[in-house]
Amino acid sequence: MYRLECPGCGEWLHAPLINGTEMTRCPVCADYVPYREVYVAAGPFSIKRDVLIRNSAKYRALLFDAQAELERLRSNEAFNPFGLSAAALEDNIGNLKELLEGAAGTSAASANDVRFSSEDADFSGRLVNVSLNGISLDARGLAGIKEKDTLTVDLISVRTPFLKVMGEAAWVEVGRMGIKFIKDDREARKGIADYISARGRF
């Protein structure tokens, strides 16, 4: 979960995804809030995202140690000199994983799998980022897709079980691609907005 403080009223804005724009509006005071100091929050913990990224190796080492300690605790419950609770340690491990996902720009939000298809084949990918204009995905097997190819994207929407949106391949790299939405009707625009809102966009 990402957090961003409104400089106007001090309200904290929350979202599982960063939507790729330079600023957003505060829902409380309607002030424009620039994406400057974005925090990653997990459970009771919160840290500036740029600090987390710089120190991600230390947090990964801490996660490794915590997982090893949990295994030791499970294999020998009688030896527990610090009085650690397995449940509390599992919670902390979950929080560490969520923080590291935030550093990587991914999200623990559900329904991040996205299906899309061309005229010739079906594909699936993992959501990296989304906005009203398009979506970026981690995906494999993209060799058959070229820039400007027309694609049909299946999104899980709060209004319909699946929302089909027409798109165009904006860029394609090894293992990653961006799709520009073709919002040719009001229903498609509304569905995309609902899809983003369901994920708690800033």
Report on this model:
- Helices cover 29% and strands 33% of the residues.
- The protein is an alpha+beta fold and 202 residues long.
- The chain has 2 domains: 1-108, no CATH class; 113-198, predicted glycosyltransferase like domains (Thrombin, subunit H), CATH 2.40.10.220.
- The strands form 3 sheets. The protein has a 6-stranded antiparallel barrel. A 4-stranded antiparallel sheet has the order 2-1-5-6. Strands 3-4 form a two-stranded antiparallel sheet.
- It is globular.
- 18% of the residues are buried.
- The model is unreliable at 106-111 (pLDDT under 50).
Contiguous low-pLDDT stretches (5 residues minimum) are 106-111
Q: How are strands sequenced across the largest beta sheet?
A: 7-8-9-12-11-10
User: Mean of the pLDDT scores?
Assistant: 78
The secondary-structure class comes to alpha+beta
Strand content: 25-35%
In quaternary terms, these chains amount to single chain
Largest sheet, in brief, is: 6 strands, antiparallel, barrel
Distance between the termini: 11 Å
Rg over CA atoms: 20 Å
Count of all domains: 2
Q: Write down how many β-strands occur, each being a DSSP E stretch of 2 or more residues.
A: 12
Helix content: 25-40%
Q: Identify the overall geometry.
A: globular
Short description:
With 202 residues, the chain is α+β, with helices and mostly antiparallel strands.
